[in-house]
Amino acid sequence: MSTVFSKSVPGREGVWPDAPKTDPLDFIPATLLRGGDPRLPSLSELDVVRHFTALSRKNYGVDSNFYPLGSCTMKYNPKFTEEVGALPGFARLHPLLPQLPGGGEMAAGALEVLYEMERFLCEITGMAAFTLHPMAGAHGELTGALMMAAYHADRGHKKTKIICPDSAHGTNPASASIAGFDVVSIESKDGIIDPAALAAAVDDETAGVMMTVPNTLGLFERHLPEIVAICRKVDALLYYDGANLNAILGKLRVGDAGFDVVHLNLHKTFATPHGGGGPGSGPVGVSERLIPYLPVSRVEKDEAGRYSLRYDHPKSIGYVAPFYGNFGVVLKAYAYILRLGREGLVRVSESAVLAANYLRARLADAIEVPYNRTCMHEFVASAAKLAAEKNVRALDIAKALLDKGYHAPTIYFPLIVKEALMFEPTETESKDTLDAFVADLLDILAQAETDPEAVRACPTTLPVGRLDETHAARAMEITDDL
Amino acid sequence: MPYIPHTPDEIREMLGVVGARDVAELFDEIPPALRPQSLNLPRGATEMAVRAGMERLAAKNRIDMVSFLGGGYYDHYVPAASDLLLSRGEFYTAYTPYQPEASQGTLQAIFEYQTAVCRLLDMECSNAGVYDGGTALYEALMMAVRHTRRKKAVVSETVNPIYRIVLATYTRNLHLELVTVPHKDGLDDMEGLAAAVDDKTAAVVVQNPNFFGNVQDFTELFAHAAAKGAVSVLSCYPVLQTVLKTPGAMGADIATAEGQSLGLPLSFGGPYLGIMTCKKALVRQMPGRIAGRTHDAAGRTGYVLTLQAREQHIRRQKATSNICSNQALCALRALINLCLTGNEGLTRQAARSIENANYAAWKLCAIPGVRLVNAAPFGNEFAVVFPVKAKLVARKLMDEGVIPGFPLGRYYKGLENALLVCCTEKHDRADIDRLVRRVENVL
Amino acid sequence: MQKDLLYTKTHEWARVEDDIAVVGITDFAQEQLGDITFVELPAVGDTVEAGQEMGSVESVKAASELYSPVSGEVIEVNGDLEGAPEKVNSDPFGEGWFIRVRLSAEPAGLLSPEEYEEIAKAEH
Lengths: 482, 443, 124
Prior knowledge:
The complex is a heterotrimer. Chain A is α/β, with parallel strands linked by helices. Chain A has helices at about 45-55, 80-85, 90, 105, 110-125, 135-155, 170-180, 195-200, 225-235, 255, 325-365, 385-390, 395-405, 430-450, 450-455, 470-475; strands at about 130, 160-165, 180-185, 205-210, 235-240, 260-265, 285, 300, 305-310, 380, 410, 420-425. Chain A is built from 16 helices and twelve strands. In chain A, the strands form three sheets. A seven-stranded mixed β-sheet of chain A has the order 1-7-6-5-4-2-3, sandwiched between helices. A three-stranded antiparallel β-sheet of chain A has the order 10-12-11, with helices on one face. In chain A, strands 8-9 form a two-stranded antiparallel ribbon. In chain A, strand 11 (about 410) and strand 12 (about 420-425) form a beta hairpin. By secondary structure, chain B is α/β, with parallel strands linked by helices. Chain B has a seven-stranded mixed β-sheet, sandwiched between helices. Chain B has a four-stranded antiparallel β-sheet with strand order 11-12-15-14, with helices on one face. Chain B has a two-stranded parallel sheet with strand order 1-13. The relative contact order of chain B is 0.14. Chain C has a single domain (about 5-125), classed as CATH 2.40.50.100. Chain C has helices at about 25-35, 80-85, 85-90, 115-124; strands at about 5, 10-15, 20-25, 35-40, 45-50, 55-60, 65, 70-75, 100-105. In chain C, a hairpin with a 3-residue loop joins strand 6 and strand 7 (about 65). Chain C is globular. Classes of the chains: A alpha/beta, B alpha/beta, C alpha+beta. Chains A and B meet through helix 1, helix 2, helix 3, helix 5 and helix 6 of A and helix 1, helix 2, helix 3, helix 4 and helix 5 of B.
């Protein structure tokens, strides 16, 4: 399908405002003005609508396909939250308004959403305070790492290292690095953190430990109390990567369990849409002792119930976002929490964990599940045997699933399992969907035994087959003009 | 239970297959000591009730006032088709395109977005977008630091002050030296900037139009920076780039921008769109996702995420950035908007904004005691100086239903009497006349 | 297995002739990396130190640091690799060479072909 630029026809009228009466040249000297033309496409509204409608038809989305991507929590995005996000009272609000005198009162509804959302997240996680500013999960991790650095600097500690298990998501060490830390990786044992390995790696220079519960294998970190104790001994802060929160909503509050810093992914656990790769939102929660370092501004409520922004927090790390975070995303998550309520959120984790175990139980005979015990909301299978015997790899199984109308599970992550396939069904998929998926996956695995070539040829029913990624990287054609 | 389809029968069946007595058993590994000490949340509510509640909250926000607030975030007209196309579930409920064969819609859209912003800014390469204009500027600085292996940055004080605070926050632990060159009545001190750029400088960072709305030419400064081996970074305003000399024409190595003005709602601070473009020589330093064109075995054209080896999921602690998300839906929105307005539409938005701003400036300055902060050309925004504190003027006008602009004293010492006033094509003469009348009354 | 070369445990090789060494990565390394898409090398005139990072190699799925096996001054860089990085895959010990170094010290601590073979086998 050709690009929108090649569909351009000079003279086609799009959606235009009235023409100006003057020319920019009347106000600005020619030397400061643009020489050439921006060569944006010249299209009618129908041209544009046809083009993007056609593009959308080449995409798999949760609305059309089962999407068991491990670690991503591709749950259904409730439509009413889209309406809420588009309410003019929110959508048309300028971010600088509360920074004007009396402006806080004029954005009272928005400030109330921020304040109440913080309270909800505190209650859900057991943390003492939250910032909604980070604009994605990785951004939350960086914010958390910056606060950890500030905490230690404030106490005159010389803390240079952060420890991550080898199963950690790549953003964990990347974020720690940007905050100025060296990263030490420790080997997991039996799929989870080994307290002995941790104790050996921890010393007086350890600023913190970053981990997630359940971990990236979907396993519960059963040595958590020991891990907390090891950290406390050297005043290392314990960081929770909230990517997997969907498994423990209402069953475990990480603040109660001893975590000091927590980031959440509203676009995972709290059902805001993934958007093809963003926007997300990554709020960060802290324990009492880290509150002074939270980014500014912070929302406050006085005895009269009036909300305002306060910037005067001298130990704050500063601004991690230009304003108050991805407000449009926070709105949707807030509405979702109101809809589900206490009992709904608890049912989320129960149903997510049940669905994942059901899928695991139904597949464990057909494909290797390295840690085949009760999992949480996701589990990891390995195609290593199939790869060795039939040269059918995790990649091939993923592509074959695409042909059957499913988005593939996460593949080749976590790194500690060879030919990994990570399945996370989520709580919003019906048993019928799971059963159909199992049947189709079993078909693929059977076909891999008898006709591996056919599996390696997948996908064959989509607009394109497997694409030459080497050519893409070498040729570097990243615009229509290169 | 909303959104959870399991019936009691189905739950029983699934438990049977799993071999568990009840759902609680699946959580046995969580010891009693780790269970929540409290979970004080309201009961769930119907969709109808939640919507009504949110509408009540939305109604507490004053969007009925005539506003002249800008400061990098502008209220331009958004075509209706843009909202509708974006609401297609195939776009907004999709994930990051890691399985390209099932994501050609998203991937081609990213490719087209990259092309569109490169053309608009006259730059060679673009990524798929980062969180916002401020973090884009930070990432640009880090590109320069990695490329030059130097640790000093020269930043003009006329760069958005909020962005400068973000830069300081992120670079605090990285042992970088940030040198701020003070403004001169809202204009860039070109000699001061050039003098500060030496052979230890990784980057010089400026903005056009600058925070005061003034339009300048940085070509000479950038040439000087290049001679010193420093990277030139320009933060710009995409709508006005249809009319103003481009970063590419000035010789910028990296051009960033806030993409909000390209059809994204103001939305009280986000989600926004960090546009990042650069010269080809720097593209391997560029963080974030990038879509590239390629083909399959049958020769069909297709698009994939490329240069991923730089990213966090592969490099881990050695990644160019920790960025995972790319604001894909925001970039798509910007692209759709650019296609619907095209050259003519976007140029008209720019030209009408400049026209309105100049009309407003002319009429405001006709009020005795009111003058512009400087006499240099400006785009859709300008700074006026009152004989009294701008905060007081703003407060009075807001009580009368007009938000006149942004009091600069909040971020610029010595400019407590100055107000930043912005116009877009959505303002009409009547709005501006009303603003002028009210200001006249107050003064 | 090239017998006239010395190796590092990070999969670089060095061919030493008097005071000049030619450096590249091994067949095992290129196989592990997959299709090479880009090679980042030091410039002519730069100094390299044995065991220190001197650049990187990128493939579609991975990126790896390059560590210099020897110490000295870079006197030549393989210019072909910019346009044809695939030469590293097709001929890692010949056309896929990376840099030529004028040695400032005797190469030390490098592995013999047999020692390297052991390491490569263990990692497989």
